[in-house]
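Methods — Computational structure assignment.
A single polypeptide chain was analysed. Its primary sequence is given first, followed by the predicted tertiary structure written as structure tokens.
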Amino acid sequence: MPETADRKDDHVRIIEEEDVETSGTGFADIDLVHEALPEIHRDEIDTTTTLFGHELAAPIVIESMTGGHPSTTKLNRALAEAAQRTGIAMGVGSQRAGLELDDEDLVESYTIVRDVAPDAFLYGNVGAAQLVEYDVADVEEAVEMIEADAMAIHLNFLQEAVQPEGDVDARGCLDAIERVADALSVPVIVKETGNGISRSTATRLADAGVDAIDVAGKGGTTWSGIESYRAAAVGADRQEQVGKRFRAWGIPTAVSTVEAAAVHNCVVASGGVRSGLDVAKAIALGARAGGLAKPFLGPAGQGTDAVVDLIETLALELRTAMFVTGAASIAELRETEYVVLGRTKEYLAERR
């Protein structure tokens, strides 16, 4: 099996077996203000929202995780079937393996998502580091592979810096992103992979014409930590230590959400989002939706029903948060009152 595909399999295994969680999203410092007299019926609350004109039943995204190894086909099938049944959005993992390797089994790990989710909002995924080598036609191939409704370009330079085989040339990526955003047939999302996006970076991306920003801040799965485990397995001691040192590096998700939403009108909050209440807080901070990755991985291994069960739990938590803040719609939730406490308050004060 080629190196790129083996790496994808390694990632899933490490996430399932090792401690790769960090804390510090900032959501614990966000209190939504309770409304004792909401004057609405909980079951009539409207959780629908739109993303690039596509209606979602709830502002919940199954974040990019898997694809690129035959073992991930089952996982992507369950995730996509659940997205289809519940009306939420889903992204696939990096499509690099599918684009660069001539292997039908690898490609199927991606194409399966549209096969089983003909109506779901699905987005593809390529790395910013690869855009310098790809032209727009290559990215269009990734779009066509899953009949994507949008394309994510991921920023993972800390992860690349820890990988023994990582791509650490970040030159020219913003120009490449602007080129793709201008010419691609579908909207472009730029997403981090666990270290957050600052206001200044979000401004540069907005100026480059990207259609959405997924902040993927600090506080969830640490890709630096994952690559530290991989480095240890191949005896790359120095890279292992670097991965450990930067395990908790980044901008907290709550902070990154506030900063990105100040300069772009379509922000997805991910990075340590672990509940429907976290999704509600993210939307109150300015996000359009909240995304989760690792929490879906275990259920995906169990099958579609387990993934649907988790989505329904998240949706009920979100609906409950809306009920007790008096928000009858997602638009009203975006205007709900909140209080910022603790380290997040200090962080935002310093940044401002």
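Note: The chain has a mean pLDDT of 95.
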